[in-house]
Amino acid sequence: xxRKIFNSPSFVKPTVVDVAPxxxxxxxxxxxxxxxxxxxxxxxxxxxTKQALECYLPGQDDVYNRYFKDFVAxxxxxxxxxxxxxxxxxxxxxxxxxxxFVGHYISDEAVKKIADDYYLITEALELVNFPIILPYTKTWxxxxxxxxxxxxxxxxxxxxxxxxxxxxxxxxxxxxWVKSILESKRWREAGEEGIATNNLEKPVPLLRDFTDxxxxxxxxxxxxxxxxxxxxxxxxxxQIAAQRPDVLDRIREENIKARDGDAMAPxxxxxxxxxxxxxxxxxxxxxxxxxxxxxxxxxxKDFPISKDYTVPKGAMVIPTTYMALRDPEVYTNPDxxxxxxxxxxxxxxxxxKNYLVFGLGPHYCIGQTYAQLxxxxxxxxxxxxxxxxxxxxxxxxxxxxxxxxxxxxDCPLTFEERKN
Length: 420
Ligand code: HEM
Known about the structure:
- The protein is mainly α.
- The chain has a single domain, classed as CATH 1.10.630.10.
- The chain has 16 helices and 10 strands.
- A 3-stranded antiparallel beta sheet has the order 1-3-6, with no helix packed on it. Strands 2-10-7 form a 3-stranded antiparallel beta sheet.
- A hairpin with a 5-residue loop joins strand 4 (303-304) and strand 5 (310-311).
- The longest helix is centred in the middle third of the chain and has 32 residues, at 212-243.
- Protoporphyrin IX containing FE (HEM) binds at residues 6, 14, 30, 41, 221-222, 225-226, 229-230, 233, 291-292, 295, 357-361, 363-367, 370-371.
- This is sterol 22-desaturase.
- Keywords: Heme, Iron, Metal-binding, Monooxygenase, Oxidoreductase.
């Protein structure tokens, strides 16, 4: 049933709480539907190819190198006592996203400010469905934070346009997009001026011009879509890896081998892809603790969803990812965390139709490969640089929902530096 909803774009489209267009911009691409949405998305696909993702790796590496040192410092400052790490995971993931999306055009201070303030944006969206924004309410603070991010990103676009026009190399998603836009413009102008284009490669797809604010808004949707989901996954990943030393040992072994024992050595895409066990852990983690439990859609017209029921036009219809991911006919002991099912088992083939973690149909997650490789990079590096312990409380396995899912005790951990 969930698959049917995701895959019925002629009957349904995604819907959001009233405040979302105010935060993201009314004319944002994520609110497009049908052909207009498909066309816009085509222009973004090239930003997530293997070749493109490789360019963003050094920025990600850099952030982990720095934050993992902070993890150790936090434990030291707390006198070795456990500290709830959920907020810290949110900050690291925000910093990683920002480096991947807008590279080094943004200062460390701005990264820190956005990471801190992003919490206000998620809070503003906490199912608030109030049509106006009143001063000093959650939505007001959320809007202020969103405007600040949009302004910062627009400044980055201006800098990226200058650097890409001067032939600089691509270091982030923004560069990749700006470069494609400039190449398209060059091609079009050459055609218009009757200049031979045989020394130019025709860009596919040929992009139109985008304003700084349009690019900023689109990158903001990436941050918006990734921040809560990736933070949720990272929090559970660290909690579960600590609870399962057998799993963590195998991740570590695989990473040491792939990186010739040097935790600080930059990793490339082939190495990352070769780490099959680490990637199986991420895959299973996302099945076991799917960050996005529900995706709200709305019926554009009467939608005969089954023999006996037609969803009336205008009603919300909300596919959940959870049931498919716990289907006992596909996953033996579905409530057990078992990476083996994705490493040596048949979960990938048998559960091909069940893996709704990233949605399905025309709106499926554009960042899914990036997200999984980033989580593999994160836990792989951590396994080499850190030892950590989870300090369970009665709330550790209880789930709270803050846009995505988190352990109710915010994941108390202690870290120490690992001497290899
Ligand atoms: C573990 C991390 C992530 C999870 C679990 C996740 C999950 C999802 C889900 C369930 C959807 C809705 C799909 C649908 O309606 O069919 C979605 C959409 C989306 N995601 Fe992700 N996501 C993650 C990370 C990311 C990242 C890192 C990015 C950006 C680079 C991203 C960008 C997007 C965008 C732009 C959409 C909307 C696509 C559209 O409407 O065409 N996501 N994601």
